[in-house]
What we know:
By secondary structure, the protein is an all-alpha fold. Helices cover 77% and strands 0% of the residues. The chain contains five helices and no strands.
Amino acid sequence: MAFLTLPLLAIRPGKFALAFSLGSLLVMFGFAVLSGPINHLKHLAAPERLPFSMAYVGSLVATIYFSVGRTSYIGSIIGAIVQIIALITYIAAYFPGGTQTIRFGGQMLLRGAGSALPF
């Protein structure tokens, strides 16, 4: 649903950020239902995932705050970008080899961009 409002991102980023934040919350609740709420909370509070969990929750709160409360253009965009990155790494951590796949994809993207750039 949030990606339907993607063309409005330049005009009204708060609308996209709010829809994306709510969708992101639903993804988190979905993982909690699949793995069990207690296991999911233990997974989020594990020492190796705690910095990510704090960044994700912080970006989620900041995105909703800047979209609804303060209606800041720049705050909504920055919060949404941090939230997208955190959500991708969260989802990748659940799949076997997910982190390595994202790292490999990033390297391929940079390699392709490097060969396409004129310098």
